[in-house]
Structures are given as structure tokens and as C-alpha cells.
Specification:
Blueprint lengths: L1 H17 L20 E18 L7 E4 L1 E12 L4 E5 L2 E10 L6 H4 E18 L6 E14 L20 E14 L4 E11 L18 E15 L1
């Protein structure tokens, strides 16, 4: 996936940079007392790639999901618990689009559904950090989140027969990922990658229980990858 490749390139670039100067064998330590703060704040910019996981009532051809690369922006609030653990709240805005192709529908217009989402995402995460080495500190992160889909069409009476795909407004997720804190001269920079897994069915069925778009779907859950670049 392109997002994964981008993240790998970024990490290897930082490792290569670490062989010289500020991240070398005897680096000049930056922001030595930064992590001793009880609380600190930041913001992030990033990319996202959303997918769906479908489960079906009867065996048939799978709905094809084509993901696109969306953008993300948000804030970070960090509460230090001890030397290894931090509690983080990272509310953000995530814009994305998923294109669904229904292989059993012949008409080209009805076969395709463009699912555009403007999500307000509210994750509460526990961050576990390794010991700092020079100006580098890797970490793992995981937790739970709630997502408000502003483009869900949940209140619409029309359904797919009127070319309107409907989803629930609120969803719950669990998240897990990893990243690295890089201590620069004036700020801390933290690239990270995180997987997001929806826990409940998000689909609102069409009014016709035999609908070719929703009739055979047992559940539809979000799967997503976030690549965020955080500045503290």
C-alpha cells in the first residue's frame, strides 16, 4: 500500500540522518526535560486510507472496495503518567472516500457507490515508550475511539434506490500502532502509523429488505490506516 511505503521511506530517512550529527554516536541532546512535563500539547497532519470489512449472509461475489488517500488534521493532548506511559487524546478531522463496486448489478450507475466521509475522530490512547536513546524514543500506542461521520446520510429517507448510501453517524473502534519521537532543537517531531478497526456494524439497510446493495450484508465495519506527523 502506498501509505505504508511512504512511512517506511520516512523511517529509513530518519535512521540514515541519525548516523550523522544530532543523532550520531555522541549527539547533542535536545529538549532534555521535555517529557518531564505533566501535560503538553501539539498538533498533527497526516494521511489516511479507509476500507470496509464486509460479512455476508450467503456466499456470493464480494463487494469490491477501492480505497483512496485522504487527509487528516487535529490536536494532541498528552498527560504523563510515568516514565513509560502517557495518556493521549487526539481529536481530529479525517476526510476520505471509498468506492464500492457491486459485481452482481449490471447497470454501470447502480453498480458504483461513492462513499464520501468527513469524520470527526475522538481517540483516547495509551502510549508506551521505550527508553530514550540520544534524541530518539520509539513507542507503541493503542486504545479506543469514537467517530462521528458527518456525511453518513443517516437521517435521509431515500436509500440506494435513489443513489443514496447510508451509514450510522457514530461508530466505535479500537486502535493500535507505533511511532518514534524525534527530539529536534526547537520541537519534538513524531511520525507514526496506526491501524483502526471498527467494532460494530455501520450500515443502514435500504427500505427494501431484498435490496441488491444491502440485502446480503450481515455487517460492514471500518478498517483504516492512519499516518500522522505530530509536532509538539
Amino acid at each position: 500500500m502506498k501509505l505504508k511505503s511512504l512511512f517506511i521511506v520516512i523511517i529509513f530517512t530518519q535512521i540514515s540522518f541519525a548516523q550523522y550529527g544530532m543523532f550520531g554516536k555522541n549527539p547533542l541532546i535536545h529538549l532534555e526535560n521535555f517529557d518531564k512535563q505533566r501535560t503538553h500539547w501539539g498538533y498533527f497532519l497526516g494521511f489516511n486510507s479507509y476500507d470496509f470489512k464486509f460479512d455476508y449472509l450467503t456466499v456470493g461475489k464480494d463487494i469490491e472496495v477501492k480505497s483512496t488517500t485522504g487527509f487528516s488534521v487535529g490536536l494532541v493532548g498528552n498527560l504523563r503518567l510515568n516514565d513509560y506511559f502517557d495518556l493521549r487524546f487526539e481529536p481530529g478531522f479525517y476526510a476520505t472516500q471509498r468506492n464500492l463496486t457491486y459485481p452482481n448489478i449490471e447497470d454501470s450507475v447502480d453498480r458504483l457507490r461513492e462513499v464520501k466521509s468527513s469524520n470527526l475522530h475522538f481517540p483516547l490512547l495509551l502510549k508506551f515508550s521505550a527508553l530514550r536513546t540520544g534524541n530518539i524514543k520509539p513507542y507503541l500506542v493503542g486504545g479506543f475511539s469514537r467517530t462521528l461521520n458527518l456525511g453518513s446520510n443517516a437521517n435521509a429517507q431515500d436509500d440506494n434506490y435513489s443513489n443514496r448510501f447510508r451509514m450510522k453517524k457514530w461508530t466505535s473502534n479500537y486502535e493500535i500502532g507505533f511511532g518514534v519521537d524525534l527530539y529536534l532543537e526547537y520541537f519534538k517531531f513524531s511520525p507514526s502509523i496506526r491501524g483502526v478497526f471498527g467494532m460494530g456494524d455501520e450500515l443502514i439497510r435500504d427500505n427494501n429488505p431484498n435490496s441488491p446493495w444491502t440485502g446480503n450484508i450481515q455487517s460492514m465495519k471500518t478498517r483504516a490506516i492512519f499516518i500522522n506527523f505530530t509536532f509538539h
